[in-house]
Amino acid sequence: MPDIFPAQLKIDLPFYILLLLTAVAAVSAWFVYRKTAPPVSLTLRYILGFLRGTGIFLLLSLFFAPNLTMLWKTKKHPRVDILIDRSASMGIKESNRRRIDRANAIAEILVQQLRNKAGVRLLGFDVGLDSIAALPADTGSFATDFYKPLKAIHEKEKDNRVIVLITDGNQTSGSSPLFDKQLADIPVFTVGVGDTVEAADIYIQDVRHNNIVYRNRKTTIEVVIGARGVAGGETVLSIARNGKRIEARKITVPKAGLTRAEVFEIQPRETGLQVYTISIEELPSESVRENNVREISLNVLKDKLKTALVASAPGYEFKFMRHVLASMEDIELRVSVSARGKNYYQMPVSAATEDIDLLILINYPGPNTSAADLAKVSQVLNSNVPAIFIETGRNLNRSINLLQTHFGVTRIIKSGVSPDVQPVPTVQGRLSRMFDIYDEQNKNAELWTELPPLNYNFREVSAGTGWEPLLEASANRFGRESKLPLILAKLKGRQRRMLLIGRGFWRWQFQMAEDRQYSDAWKKILNNFVNRLCRTGSNGNVIISTDRTSYEIGESVGVNIQVYDASFRPVDDAAVQIAVTGGNSDFELESSALGKGLYRSEFIPGQRGRLNIIATANRNDVQLGQAKKDIVITALNTEFRSISQNAVFLRRLALQTGGKYFIESRADSLINYLKLTPTVENRKQTIELWNKLSVLILIIALFSIEWFLRKKLGLA
Questions:
Q1: Bridge pairing between strands 259-266 and 219-228
Q2: Prediction pTM value
Q3: How many Cβ atoms sit within 10 Å of the Cβ of residue 354?
Q4: pLDDT digits (tens, 9 = 90+) for 32-91
Q5: d(CA 402, CA 409)
Q6: What is the pLDDT of residue 716?
Q7: What strand order describes the sheet that includes 161-167?
Q8: How does 19-47 read in b/e, with b if 16+ C-beta sit within 10 Å?
Q9: How confident is the model over 10-28, as pLDDT tens digits?
């Protein structure tokens, strides 16, 4: 709090001037009031003299244009933010006492110790940060993020602030605060809650399965089981659907620190999203049972996508595309490559393109393409079969007619220069989320710096209405920066097309095969392309998609809505209503318009089960369309995959920020290490007295009061 009165006052006039003005004012007052007629008491003469002398002093000093400087001092007490982890893992019981209860006891002691020594703020955190009036009694938050809460505190005033973090140290969401050097500005004192020694526990470490499977076809589910703090024994592993057990088997518990894998073979009988529950019978000595159950969802399709890969001649682009498509589980691949005469590689075009779901063309047609084959391909395209065209420029003079007639390319000109360009997703590409192939967003961003460049030998490429660039590169041409379209998409209306322009897409598969981190990048991207073209059922005016089809309780679900009018133009002024039903709760969502007809909403489900999301778009009270999407919310597992205290992380965080790590039993000594010395903040204020109306009013008031008293006393 600032002091009531300034700690220092200073007028910037030389001392001899002040002395002279004081003398003149004092002499003037003494001369006037040395004698009065009629006589008045000495006290009244002093008062009248003071009023006149002060008025004269102020009036004369204004001629020197003085400034008055005042120094204010503010004492700032240290501030301590006590952060209490209230995520689900803090509900684990150890020695018959929950971690959250032990954390509350530590916080209560600290609050008592810090009383009258510092400003204390209690905060609860999980994936966010909230001020709390009382110690949190319950847990239930479904993830732990240390970065966001610490970042939120750093965005406020940092001076004389200390953070005390009471937690088990297990981060299950977000970025690590250890990688942000800016978070070292405030010291973090960590108090570890929970046993550092592994308790007895058997758990499901991982479940490996295909996300897309097919009705009446067998598929495998591999379950990886781990154990800690146990010395063997037996238990029962089972798999169930809709509460009905499909199979159960007795297994040997792996030794502590080891894992074992069990494989189930199932054969789904129904299409759609199917949820399977895998569970391990708990051991008597187990301290945590939440990680004994894992739920997975399988997208059961009726059939594989019949895909025709038609190329004008063999080449690298053909080889890479055939290799990737052949490895995709949900594709039934047919291949046809024209050769001299009437020969074909694998099968004729007529057989490959019969009753297909997707057509992929590479540099088509070519020198060996017959008129009958070209007519067959044109017939398939006229039937609005989804199609992907890869144009490297090899047969541009032959394929240009097909590109213009069936792919809406209005202008394409080959160039004599073939620079290597680095691809970057456009705004539309990022919004489509077709390039979000990994759960970690930073990994998605880094992917484009790792992928090999493409060779681009086109001077100009223009597509008609309805096409959007998903991937492009920049080039300096004729002294100015220009954008080169690499992947164009037309995903609305009856014609659903994609156009890949450039040479070298094959590098994304073969050259990245040695990089384990990104070796499956192109396969995942192509899988997104295929599903977006063929499986969204989005020929209507409203398209709905989610980032995934399966989420755990507490994970954020992102819902994307694309809205078009009757002419399939994006609608930016639609009223979009999103209703979520199922899971024992019905609710509505608000959406945000992102432009180009795209709307987005997010929500966090709190219960497991199947949810149906219905999006309805209206404009001027007229319905533009409606779309539906099913997702599955499975049980919480993330918070219980590691149950011991992560003391290593807490020590590193404290060391990096200039704090200190404390075990639970030593937490009461933490206050001895906190710097609780108040700081003083100085604030200087300078006033120009000659230019201040209040000073003029004061001078007038002094002379007015003197005149009033003189009249009252009858002085001459």
A1: antiparallel
A2: 0.56
A3: 14
A4: 888 888 888 888 888 888 888 888 888 888 888 788 787 777 777 788 999 999 988 898
A5: 9
A6: 66
A7: 129-131, 119-125, 79-85, 161-167, 188-192, 661-663
A8: eebeeebeebbeebbeebeeebeeebbeb
A9: 777 788 888 888 888 888 8
